[in-house]
Amino acid sequence: RIASPPALAVLLLPAVVVAAAVSGQDAAQRVGVAVIGGGASGTYAAWRLATSQSVEHGIALFERSDRIGGRLHSPTIGCHAAQGDSASRIDALPRCELGGMRIRASDVFVHGVAEALNVSLGNFYMNSENSGPDDDPLNPAALRGSIVTRLLVTNELQAADGGNLPRLPYEFTSFIPRLPDKIDGSGLTGTAASMHLYGDPPMAFYNMTSLPNTTNEPYDPCSSNNWRILEQPLPAPDGPPVWAYTRDTAGRLLAGTSSEGSAFGNDFSGYRIAQINLAAATDPFVPGDQGDGQAEPGKPLIGPFSRPLLGMQELPLAMSAAFLSAGGETQMNMQLLRIEVLDGDEQASNSSDIGKLKLTFVETATNPCTEITERISKDGVGDTRVVYADKVVLAGMATETLASLFEPQSQLAVEAAAAVDMVDLNNYGKFFLAFNTSERNISTAALSGANGTHWEAGRFVASSDVQQAFKWWPGTQARSPNETSAADCEDVTVLQVYSQSPLLRVAVNTPQWSCVPNVTLDTCDLCENATNWVGRPQDHFPAALADLLLTQLALMLNVSVTELPPLLEAKYEWHEISNPQSPAAAWHFWRPGKWWETFASVLQPVDDVPVYIVGEAFSFDQGWVEGALETTEMMLQEKLSVARPAWLSRNDYCAAMPYYPDKRRFAS
Fold it and tell me: Which residues make Cβ contacts (< 8 Å) with residue 603, sequence separation at least 6?
């Protein structure tokens, strides 16, 4: 067993190998449940199973890399922990969030886990006043060469009345048709015209609070009939059903949103996700309000968004530690190659109980300097290991390679491929830049055309390759170093850049991965391409990428690159299947279609085969850690009859997927 306190900022777990002698298999292991994947969904599944049921032959979690966390990765940057540091200082250090970065007030599952496992949370500031979930109205936006405040944009949109908006560089003339009177006053932010102007119409077009074609059935999130809401025609009475639309097609076909309006919506939101399924993009039953920041009696104030003080990676680390404490086994650097379903003859011919599933793994190694995980021996004999299991949970697996785990043309392979066909993926990069601001600060004072602009927390959005830059630390993560017991870090400023830009992707994937074997974190300067990196060698940050980011930031700030403070340290992660460092998409979204049927079927693709698939990709809350936990809890309750945890109410469980088409089991 591995004893590992959840308070560790970054945890590298050594492999735990438990071998069981099986006739004809010299190094085969026998487990009751094999959980594949050490991210949020995998650690949640392992923890819940280990603390809810007695599993014959035990539970083992297998992770391909040397790190627990998956797409949650929270290393410190710019100012680091030292021997003997107090817990309060470690809590306060600036941290990257190279994957998921925040928790919403409405995230019942994440908050439940945090409370159950004593994960300390702090505020995540989107604005200088912590006044709500919105960006600061005086934060700047760089739109096609014009720099404006968000307040100016909002005022322009709310004043829109079918005419052009002279202070916004988009051709809106004749592209602002009036919306039908029947959806005026529907709760949209701003005027009806201004909302669909830039392609954000989802809640306006269909009835979301009652079931069509029923005899006045009252709404119940646990009903198996809620999917009928998504069958409503748009427009009525004989248009395509709700599920056939993306946000983009709904905006264009139903509200007259122009291509310029869509472009503006992408630029001003900082996200380019127009193809997300209309019905899956909006929770029709829970108000869009992210919380009012009011504390419950006896509890500290947590605003609309929060974060673990030790970073988002603390959530899977805490679940992993609790799983191990409950008797689970964790094996790191073990990559699953294939799953074989054993027939009755194969099981009967073996003198030992070998279970129903045969898993073949390959041992891997993770280079500490490049963070690339590869097979130890690609061609050698003996580089694979066999594990026999009664059940397998595939948790957060890369959708691009999911079907390849099964025998070609088998029912499992066919069903997995069909499920993958219903989701699309989003690749993006997170880039963190730490500056030495002892002599000069990052300031927005030089911004032209944006009187009153400031940037103290939250986002600076842009139409450039830097889609959004967060004033991260101090700012979004913490107000100031003094406030957070890290006063010795006061000369550090950290920015986070989020981008889907092909230009940055090229800079990331420029060949720069080669590194000699057997290096350590202290000898990363021996890597062949270390001379092409900037900052600390162990961060393997390409100098060309740093130059590109600094140039883009200087343009946004209306300064020269030489006027920016010196760069101290830089870290990044680009989420894409072709990236050897993090070979999986960042997040996913449902394509048009009856996606709720796929949701139900993917939990167990073949009824009599105990293989289960969970993760953010197939959830109702795609793009959030909450989605990874929700779909896993659905599988545990509906397929494995695990009792609902005490911190989760019946209605909250059902609301995690209100369109579930099957009768729920509600195991007690």
Answer: 612, 613, 614, 631, 634, 635, 638, 639
Indicate if the alpha-carbon torsion angle 615, 618, 624, 629 is positive or negative. Answer: negative
pLDDT in tens, 531-575: 889 989 999 999 999 999 999 999 888 888 999 999 999 999 999
| Interatomic CA distance for residues 631 and 637, integer angstroms | 10
Cα–Cα distance for residue pair 579/592, rounded to 1 Å: 28
Cα distance between residue 426 and residue 587, in whole Å: 5
Q: What is the pairing mode between strands 423-426 and 384-395? A: unpaired
Give Cβ neighbours of residue 255 (< 8 Å, ≥ 6 apart).
Answer: 177, 179, 196, 199, 201, 204
CA 274 distance to own-chain centroid: 18
What the block records as the tokens of 169 is: 């560089």
Q: What is the DSSP letter of 606?
A: S
Contact of 268 with 461, CB cutoff 8 Å: yes
User: Other CB atoms closer than 10 Å to residue 272's CB: what's the count?
Assistant: 17
Its pTM stands at: 0.89
- Edge to edge, what strands does the sheet with 305-308 contain? 103-104, 305-308, 121-123
Residue 345 CA, chain-centre distance (Å), reads 43
Q: Is the omega angle on the peptide bond into residue 237 within 30 degrees of 0, that is, cis? A: yes
The helices-and-strands tally (H runs, E runs) of the chain is 15, 22
How far is the CA of 206 from the CAs of 88, 92, 201, 228, 278, in angstroms? 49, 46, 10, 12, 11
